[in-house]
Amino acid sequence: MKKIILPILVIISIFIMAIYSPKLSADLKGKTKFPQEFVQGEVTKVIDEELMKDPVVKGKFRGGQNLEVKILEGKYKDKTFKVYNSLSALHNVYADVGLKAIFTVREEKEKTTVWLYNLKRDRAIYLLASIFIGAVLVLGKMKGVKSLLALVFTGSIIIYILLPLLFKGVDPVSTSILLSSIIIVVSFLLIGGYDRKTYSAIIGTISGITIAGLISYGFGKIMSLSGLNLSEGQQLLYITKDFKLQIEGLLFVSILIASLGAVMDVAMSISSSINEIYQNKKSLTSKELFHSAMVIGKDIVGTMINTLILAFVGGSLPLMMMIWGYGMVYQQFINIPAIAIEIVNALAGSIGIIATVPITAVVSILLIKRKGEE
Q1: What's residue 125's pLDDT?
Q2: Where is average pLDDT lowest: 126-130, 178-182, 364-368?
Q3: What is the pLDDT of residue 374?
Q4: What per-residue confidence (pLDDT) applies to 372?
Q5: How, if at all, do strands 111-119 and 100-108 pair?
Q6: What structural domains does the chain harbor?
Q7: How far is 317 from 325, CA to CA, in rounded Å?
Q8: What is the rounded distance in angstroms from the CA atom of residue 131 to the CA atom of residue 137?
Q9: Is the distance from CB of 64 to CB of 87 less than 8 angstroms?
Q10: How far apart are CA 229 and CA 247, in angstroms?
């Protein structure tokens, strides 16, 4: 009965968050200065163009195009506008007849302005998401369904609960720990079921991410790092004045979310391993079980640390290329805030993974031995 009740409750909670969160947080969102909408349109004619080959990127152009565009949806559906499309290094969308893209329609002082915003990429995203969901369902079957449900629940907590609360001005540290704990409990119970193996993984994961977050927060303070130094952090500064956002604590939230998946994986692996070892040889002492867990943990930690650090490296690859390309010396680049943040995040997350192993092992052994005594 428990196996049915929890998924139903999770689905209901997702719908409640999706329905009521936008209404309750409507006042927290910034108001646009100009009435505008982003709609799909089609290029019906290229009136004229003045282009040159991009000197840096092969196959791209720079210059400008005068287009005739038909809007396909929204308030101006089926209406035609003349649009000037500027191609630069940052905005480079070449338009040809028949191109369907996203256009911005802005109303300002009884004047309607239209320009080409970006290529339409959502269909490709939906296709890729469908392939992902299909692969999970084929391979995981019912457990795959629960995994997807846990993923949707996690996304809903972040989008509908965490983000509005951060903009409302709540404490990022305590809020992110609380919401992460909810995500961990629900995800593990959905996927692992109600048993001591799951409970020990829950405790180990919460402990691991809390340690990782606190280390990143502490060293961030020591090095005078904050959410301002995160990618797009400076852009947040422009809207902070309109909200109660505590931007200093965003570094903690960032590392908590970034390391959550890896720590969950390690905790469940250790918990499952200890449980399986004990089931096959119940004569083992607590000390022997802990030793076995640490041996297994060494291999798991080695690969997981690589995974986590490489994920951070991949995210900062353009920055690394910039450092190499400009020939920066060690003393110059090591003290760049963005570099320091990536290092802190990677190392703090790795320490959280390392700490998860013994914590999960101890909790698993205590629960298993308690069950044996019962």
Answers
A1: 92
A2: 364-368
A3: 46
A4: 52
A5: antiparallel
A6: 36-120 (2.40.50), 169-373 (1.20.1640)
A7: 12
A8: 10
A9: yes
A10: 10
**53 three-class SS:** strand
User: Three-state secondary structure along 112-175?
Assistant: EEEEEEEECCHHHHHHHHHHHHHHHHHHHHHHHHHHHHHHHHHHHHHHHHHHHHHHHCCCHHHH
pLDDT confidence band for 232 (50 / 70 / 90): low
Q: Is 199 helix (H, G, I), strand (E, B) or coil?
A: helix
Alpha-carbon span 165 to 159, nearest angstrom: 10
Residue whose structure tokens are 């990022």 = 172
- Rounded to 10 deg, the angle between the 172-192 and 250-280 helix axes is 30
Q: What is the 3-state secondary structure (H, E, C) of 58-122?
A: CCCEEEEEEEEEEECCCCCCCCEEEEEEEECCCCCCCCCCCCEEEEEEEEECCEEEEEEEEECCH
Q: What is the pTM of this model?
A: 0.81
Q: What is the pLDDT of residues 303-333, one digit of tens each?
A: 878 877 777 777 777 778 888 887 888 887 7
